[in-house]
Amino acid sequence: MHAENFDGPAVNKGDTADTEGKKALPEGENTAHMEGVAGSVPPEGISDDAGAEGNLDDVVDRRKYPRSEFTYPVEFRLFSQNSEHASFKGYLKDISVSGACLQFEDRYGRFDSKEMNNAKIKISFSIPDGDKTSIFALIRWVGKSVPRNFLIMIGIEFQDIEPWQLGIVEKLITMRNKDHNMMWNLWEQYESRR
């Protein structure tokens, strides 16, 4: 999905076009729960198991901050009543200063997508020449790429982020344009720590 970015509080409440006139949305589509969060609109081909009904491929990208798209290894821990603080390893698919989209596999069914909307997680990652950083976030949407596939994507919104953590996120965002080989070197370091 290559939707245009725009700043502003326009929210579609079922009209056929948003208040900015940028793009028509499907009749009855409501995207209010997705506004302004990085990773808040499921990527193309992902079904939204925890939120809106309808074709999300047609939803306008309403992120307040631009996102940086790349793959970066992360770990995260789930804090919900039924998850028993389950831990997962996955990848950032995109990130902004307000949130991110994470992708991971759940081969053993520990992640119940129906109960995870607004669940709290702690995401951890390392950047080159830096220590491991952890940031708390809320899950804003959950999606699966294909039925009977173990691949899950979640959109998260960072919570209570400190200025030093924001600086690390901004550094990670700017790394997107750096040497692609550096990213794979980081991945190899990450894998060797497992």
Would you mind describing this structure in some detail?
By secondary structure, the chain is of the alpha+beta class. It has a domain at 68-193: predicted glycosyltransferase like domains (Thrombin, subunit H). The chain contains 2 helices and 7 strands. It has a 6-stranded antiparallel β-barrel. A hairpin with a 7-residue loop joins strand 2 and strand 3. The radius of gyration is 17 Å and the shape is globular. Mean pLDDT is 68; it is low at 1-40 and 45-60.
In brief, what are we looking at here?
With 194 residues, this protein is α+β, with helices and mostly antiparallel strands. It has helices at 163-175, 180-193; strands spanning 47-48, 68-79, 87-95, 99-105, 120-126, 132-144, 151-158.
Keywords:
alpha+beta; 6-stranded antiparallel beta barrel; globular; 30% strand; 2 helices; disordered N terminus; 194 residues; Thrombin, subunit H
CATH class of the domain at 68-193: Mainly Beta
Largest sheet: 6 strands, antiparallel, barrel
Estimated radius of gyration: 17 Å
Stretches where pLDDT is under 50 for at least 5 consecutive residues are 1-40, 45-60
Our count of helices gives 2
- Give the strand content: 25-35%
Helix content: 10-25%
Q: What's the name of the CATH homologous superfamily of the domain at 68-193?
A: predicted glycosyltransferase like domains
Query: Biggest sheet, strands in spatial order?
Result: 2-3-4-7-6-5
Q: Got a strand count?
A: 7
List the SSEs and their pairings.
Blueprint: E1 47-48, E2 68-79, E3 87-95, E4 99-105, E5 120-126, E6 132-144, E7 151-158, H1 163-175, H2 180-193
